[in-house]
Design goal:
24% strand; disordered N terminus; Rossmann fold
């Protein structure tokens, strides 16, 4: 059933009966969608529901097999992204389109630099225009600074500002807050509401449902490539949305501990590396999930990379299963049965050009060598199929290229990679970033299952409900130091945030 009009404004962008098929998959099946002027319209659904395909069609990246797109009441066709941009549609995709070797200003105004006499770039005006855009986020960043020197969250902001600087009529944001800190998210919402008041229309895609309820006017739900519902945000609850998205009720999202943690699995003592972190000491028991919380840049990921040997400690000691262990490379970590699910699955975790089965066994290839010293292809396929079923990986075949899977299914493949080493310790860094609610519940279930089997787990997450819901203990890192520790019973969002941001509250278990 097509979305119904309401009184929030006239329709600026409309998609009717859109069909798009890829080999073996009907990504969109007669999907209807409409966006009103001065509206923020959220588009939600599980990974693979068709959200990305729809916005790729609206942005001219893909062409529909059938159906019609109308802009301001007139039928349009966008043969390429340039045509969509020229029509006033700006898109911020999940994958950044920036050039690290260019400056901030050159990235924000790429292909649109102001020109002066002789058609040369007017550098003075370029930097002035960039400073005006940066002030939207209250950022004090030199426009001349090389973009590659910015943090991941700062680069995400630059991508958004690049789109906003085009003065579009329609702005499409695909998971825009995936790398942003809390203050930046609030600032983004303020900017969107200001732009909306000046006539901008926004399509907002996010797996973080609280964000949807905070910023959106209406919500459209897709499931399995079909339009399920469109409703006003005040007419639906978060649980209603989850039910519509996954087609079933999800209860007890985070699960419960089924066994008590055992003896010590892993311990790090007095770990330090440069300005990243110093004097870090903590332990993890077998079967325990230890959450590590902190603000962006606090040193959480740097600590994980140190443990895994990507960027080894300068000083400090580690013990695994009560034995001292020296890890100076990821290969040594893997040989010690330590796994690390990286926060950036595409750049640092997966082999996107390889298949699901090849990724599943990448860290544990030597376990699949037969007596003749050759790879046991059947054993590899069998192992991949077991993980496909265990993690509910949606793919036509384990021989499918990982780069063709949805984000949530890629994340499940990344997690399955570490099953082959039978880890004693598993570090998971932002395990559900960019993952829908259904896939989240499956990842949480597997982490609980691994803990019940005795695996020690270190979980780094910027999602506080996730940290609170899964962790047996929570450690807080601030400015590279361990400053707080909470049990599952004593931790609250308020006291964890207060500890991470150096705010004193009565009863805070602050170590600093």
């Amino acid at each position: 059933m097509p979305p119904t009009a309401n009184n929030t404004g006239d329709i600026v962008l409309e998609a009717r009966s859109i069909v798009k098929t890829f080999p073996g998959v009907r990504a969109l099946d007669r999907v209807d969608f409409e966006l009103k002027r001065s509206e923020i319209h959220a588009l939600v659904g599980e990974n693979g529901a068709g959200k990305s395909t729809l916005i790729h069609i609206l942005a001219g990246v893909h062409q529909p097999d059938s159906g019609q797109i109308r802009l301001d009441g007139s039928a349009v066709s966008f043969p390429d992204p340039h045509s969509a941009a020229a029509a006033g549609i700006a898109v911020v995709f999940q994958e950044l389109s920036l050039v690290p070797g260019l400056s901030v200003a050159e990235n924000i105004f790429a292909h649109r630099q102001p020109a002066g006499r002789l058609n040369l770039i007017d550098r003075k005006r370029l930097y002035e225009d960039t400073e005006k855009i940066l002030r939207l986020f209250e950022l004090k960043i030199d426009p001349r600074r090389q973009l590659g020197n910015l943090s991941t969250d700062e680069q995400q902001v630059m991508e958004i500002l690049k789109a906003v600087s085009q003065n579009p009529g329609v702005l499409i944001l695909d998971e825009p807050t995936s790398s942003l800190a809390g203050a930046q998210v609030k600032r983004l919402f303020g900017i969107l509401k200001d732009l909306k008041a000046h006539g901008l229309s926004v399509i907002y895609i996010s797996h973080h449902l609280p964000e949807v309820f905070e910023v959106a006017d209406r919500i459209t739900v897709l499931r399995d490539g079909k339009h399920v519902d469109t409703c006003l945000v005040e007419d639906v609850t978060e649980q209603d949305l989850v039910r519509k998205m996954v087609g079933r009720e999800i209860v007890d999202m985070y699960g419960r501990r089924t066994k008590q943690p055992g003896r010590e699995c892993f311990r790090v003592e007095s770990a330090a590396r440069g300005h990243d972190f110093r004097d870090i000491t903590f332990s993890v028991r077998f079967g325990e999930i230890v959450g590590i919380a902190g603000l962006s840049g606090a040193g959480r990921t740097e600590l994980a990379r140190g443990i895994f040997g990507v960027e080894p400690f300068e000083t400090g000691r580690m013990f695994l299963n009560n034995q001292p262990v020296e890890i100076r490379s990821p290969w040594q970590a893997i040989n010690s049965r330590i796994g690390y699910l990286t926060e950036d699955r595409k750049e640092q975790g997966l082999f996107l050009e390889m298949t699901v089965r090849e990724n599943c066994v990448a860290p544990s290839l030597r376990c699949f060598v037969n007596r003749l010293g050759l790879m046991d292809e059947k054993a590899i396929t069998d192992f991949a199929e077991v993980n496909r079923a265990r993690l509910s990986i949606v793919t036509p075949s384990v021989k499918q290229q990982v780069g063709n899977l949805s984000g949530g299914n890629q994340q499940k493949v990344l997690l399955s990679m570490w099953m082959g080493i039978q880890p004693l310790l598993l570090i998971v860094d932002e395990p559900t970033r960019g993952v829908d609610v259904g896939a989240k519940s499956e990842i949480y279930r597997l982490l609980r299952e691994l803990a019940a089997q005795g695996v020690g787990i270190i979980m780094i997450s910027s999602d506080l409900p996730e940290i609170l819901g899964l962790s047996d203990r929570i450690l807080v890192i601030r400015n590279g130091r361990l400053v707080g520790e909470f049990t599952a019973e004593t931790a609250t969002e308020e006291n964890v945030i207060a500890c991470a941001s150096e705010v004193s509250l009565p009863g805070n278990n602050n170590l600093s």
